[in-house]
What we know:
Layout: E1 21-25, E2 32-36, H1 37-42, H2 69-72, H3 75-85, H4 90-97, H5 102-113, E3 115-117, H6 123-135, E4 143-146, E5 153-156, E6 162-166, H7 167-172, H8 175-190, H9 194-215, H10 223-248, H11 251-262, H12 274-287, H13 292-298, H14 310-321, H15 324-331, H16 338-341
Parallel strand pairs: 4-6
Antiparallel strand pairs: 1-2, 3-4, 5-6
Bound molecules: zinc ion (2 copies).
Amino acid sequence: MVPDDDFAGGPPQQPEGEPTHHTLRCRLCGGRNRVPVLRALRDLRKPTCGKCSGRLLRVAGEPLTDLTDADLAHPWDRDALAALRALPRVDDLLGALMGRTVDKVAHFRYLGGALEVSSVQLPSLWELHRRASERLGMRPPPLFVSQSPQLNAWAMGAGEPFVVITSGLVDLLDDRSVQAVLGHELTHIRLGHVLYRTLARLLMSGGVGLLDRLFAIGSLLVKPVQVALLRWVQMSELSADRGGLLTIADLDDHIRVEMALAGAPKRLWRELSPQAFLAQADRSEALRSGDLLLQVTELLDDTQRSHPLPVWRAHHAAKWARSEAFFQILAGQPRPALEDLSTP
Length: 344
Ligand SMILES: [Zn+2]
Ligand SMILES: [Zn+2]
């Protein structure tokens, strides 16, 4: 077997039962192409159409105009959200949070204590944000940089969402990985996650007592609602990661974000191996037995972290990246042939 220099630590293995190739129609000429999955994932800019030589996949920068919410939502996110919404009093809870002072308090906090990014304030960061928004078919929401050595980012707000990213994250990650993070947060906003996540964030940061003092809703957060809310928070990460991955269309850089969250040191950044991390993720997944969801819920003790389980997330991001759905989204819809465009 010829060694593959692209992969430190050996080439990735095709997991059993997954297709080795996807058949994609060229959006430029309609030609059918068989694309090898793992080879394409090394550089998604490279697959070209055998008929017209055009690029088969829409690379970063090209807006995904036909992207739907259903493309982004992970089934576990949808299921967990349905379970949360089915609980009594959840509507009361969200209704109480909406239209109160949440947006005012949150905006005040960041306007008063963080940097608001714009075309004149940290313009290169704003450009990454603007392009990530355009890629996902959204208007760029307000963006703040918050002073913190921790690697974190979050979207907040009840009615008018905005994104916050820490200075530590901007310092450590390169532009493409920062854009993956922004795409992740934008996806939370696009999928309507932010109100629920804001509630979860308030719950994590101050608990039920704080929510009662601030908004008089603590009594509505009965235990089953808290458990369902925190479980959904985990699952919503899988959807947001899909948006982050689509934003940059680069699996390795996306995995580097998860590696950063897991503890990648800045000084040794160039030595990181996404493939070795994915192999670690596979081993970690193999250790689980029984109901994955139950085990994830057990790990919810660590409620201080809003983006936990980077290894678990990397595993699922890579799995989705190998799927036909991911390739079809990047391939887009074939354009109608010229003769179809003539008006009667
Ligand atoms: Zn073509
Ligand atoms: Zn998230």
